[in-house]
Amino acid sequence: MTPVPVLTKAKIKVYAYGQSTLLALKGVFQTTITYESRTIPVKIYVVKEGHGMFLGCKAAEDLAVVTFAFSIHRDSVTELLAQYQGVFKGIGCLKGKEVKLHIDRMVQPVALCHWRIAFHLGPQVEKELDHLEKAGIIERVTGPTPSVSPIVVARKP
Question: How far apart are CA 83 and CA 72, in angstroms?
Fold first, then answer.
């Protein structure tokens, strides 16, 4: 049977993790702790009843109970762009897939009037519309349609 350790008065204040109230200490004693193949000397602070046991950060690290990773390898942007180059090219149209659109037939289609575009933005809007049409994102409609929405021009800074 191992001898009962002699408690001495603790000269520090101890708080539980994330708490602001002091833990009531009975005392402190010096001993050695063994975990797997590691043995370390450590001070054990004995708290009054009602609190669980816990191991300090330094002791946990010295015993290799926990390990801390201080550096994380991050790929550079150029490496990621090179690795996933197919994702970052083109528009990304989904071809050869059938999509089912759930449309409520009780909702009446609405055809709204177009909104005026500032005169100085006209050439840029026409250029962008031509680009979107050539890319296959939008298509020109020449006849009447039951549903029409106006475009909203928002210049990026």
Answer: 19
Phi, psi of 22 (to 5 degrees): -70, 145
- Nearest 5°: the CA angle 144, 146, 148 is 85
pLDDT tens digits along 65-121? 888 877 666 667 888 888 888 887 777 777 788 989 999 999 999 989 888 999 999
How far is Cα of residue 101 from the mean position of the Cα atoms in its chain?
Answer: 31
Backbone dihedral region for residue 142 (phi beyond 0: left; psi -120 to 50: alpha; all else: beta): alpha
51: CB partners within 8 A, 6+ apart = 16, 23
| DSSP structural state of residue 90 | S
Under DSSP, the state recorded for 22 is B
User: What CA–CA distance (Å, rounded) separates 43 from 36?
Assistant: 19
CA dist., res. 42 & res. 33, Å (int): 7
How far, in Å, CA of 119 to CA of 113, rounded? 18
